[in-house]
């Protein structure tokens, strides 16, 4: 085993379900192989704190600093879980790549904020920490997101045109063409609205397998309104989005234009359609109809959405497990790979995806 080829990737995304972490070995030419995974769910308090920080609050700088410390401690718990599971010594890990927690994303205004305390994580783990992966791309005029298309191109390219679809809180796609061309962009909301609606009406944090939504009927006027009331859906790439744009107040403002006799399960069914249709419409606009979809993120486990993707136009929709990386691990492995790219001082953004003026080395180092 090459002692310097083990990397940890830590992702806590916009769904706010918790932290996904992986330990993987990365070869000299950037190919990852899996060693161990660890998931640390968020408790209700930290989850609410992060949700609160997505909007303006009294003394939010104070709350952000405390939340950053709590997150770093949770990330450190993941690291020790990984090392225990795999029997690997801390000094064998070359670096941790950690995303942090997005609470604002405003690339047009020149910023994106990922709450994090990489210094505390370095202190708690004794491992080099690479964080702050998005800000350099934004400084170069880019969206700072999505970043994973470069990683998808590295690990998932294959014969024909492949489309990688991440169904996280937000959905994003990467189109990998046989010619080597890579296109990627966010397509809109996925789990974040479905989770919030499910929690409000069933008390459960998410709609397991999409069963509750599948028990309802899509409401076509509501679907139409959701798709047309946000001009962002029609904007060309480069594009990215977040909770700043798609959130419960946005959904509620649209629902207020409909009779309150709408059944909650029908709204959930309509949100499932919104997820699938916004993905397929955006792909069609990018010149890909009837895609072969390889799906990652927690939404790959939502059988109802996976079925809708097939019914509404995809030739196939399979979890990325068939390409060698389990759906739930893809983003965490991507951040291990981004850390590897930083260590190599290798640029990791794709300017044609993010809109940055050129390639840039992404991230910053907090030494052990
Ligand atoms: N069995 C399941 N059935 C339906 N949905 C599920 C299931 N398991 C997980 N999910 C969904 O997946 C979500 C977590 O997905 P994931 O970890 O990919 O999101 P994320 O990384 O936070 O988001 P993003 O990619 O936008 O940053 C959960 O909040 C839930 O909505
Ligand atoms: C600003 C931000 O955190 N964006 C996330 C979010 O979650 C999915 C989608 O929106 C994607 O653009 C991005 O995450 C992945 C890891 C990315 O940068 O590729």
From TrEMBL:
The signal sequence is none
Pathway stated in the Swiss-Prot or TrEMBL entry: Amino-sugar metabolism; 1,6-anhydro-N-acetylmuramate degradation; Cell wall biogenesis; peptidoglycan recycling
Q: Which GO terms describe its biological process?
A: 1,6-anhydro-N-acetyl-beta-muramic acid catabolic process; amino sugar metabolic process; peptidoglycan turnover
Query: Among its keywords, does the record have Ribonucleoprotein?
Result: no
Residues that bind ATP: 13-20
An MF annotation (GO) of this entry: ATP binding
Q: Does the keyword Transferase apply?
A: yes
UniProt xrefs under Pfam families: AnmK
Keywords for this protein: ATP-binding, Carbohydrate metabolism, Kinase, Nucleotide-binding, Transferase
Protein role: Catalyzes the specific phosphorylation of 1,6-anhydro-N-acetylmuramic acid (anhMurNAc) with the simultaneous cleavage of the 1,6-anhydro ring, generating MurNAc-6-P. Is required for the utilization of anhMurNAc either imported from the medium or derived from its own cell wall murein, and thus plays a role in cell wall recycling.
NCBIfam families per the UniProt record, alphabetical:
PRK09585.1-3
| Protein name, entry field | Anhydro-N-acetylmuramic acid kinase
Q: From what organism does this protein derive?
A: Orrella marina
Q: What is the lineage of its organism?
A: Bacteria, Pseudomonadati, Pseudomonadota, Betaproteobacteria, Burkholderiales
